[in-house]
Write the structure tokens for this entry.
Amino acid sequence: MTKKSGHRYHFPRQYRLVTASDYQSVFNNPKRVSTSELLFLYCKNNKGFSRLGLAIAKKQFPLAVDRNRIKRLVRESFRELRSQLSSVDIVVMARKNLLNMDNVQTRTQLDKLWGQVIYKGKLL
């Protein structure tokens, strides 16, 4: 790890949904928040911390550069707000409309949805 990419930007494996069963538990009985560009599916977990999964479809975003930009923005916003989230597993899905948005607009949408998850997560 380089000095510039230090610990602050690290995204440990424990905070990720990595197996099919992790994703399936969210898809089986999700709560939802969405905009026309993004969909967050989430459900309570018993881990004591939140975990993030990304489902950015190649069919919707054929260029890897677009998929990677979206994933980078979502991971960054999750890392910044992770401490405010209750114990939930979250899968973020992007819709094709997101291609028309720049990074600032995308980040605004993400912040809006994270706020809804934080609020509704406290009600779970």
Q: What stands out?
A: The longest strand covers residues 38-44. The chain is about 35% helix and 20% strand. The first helix runs from residue 20 to 28. The chain has a mean pLDDT of 91.
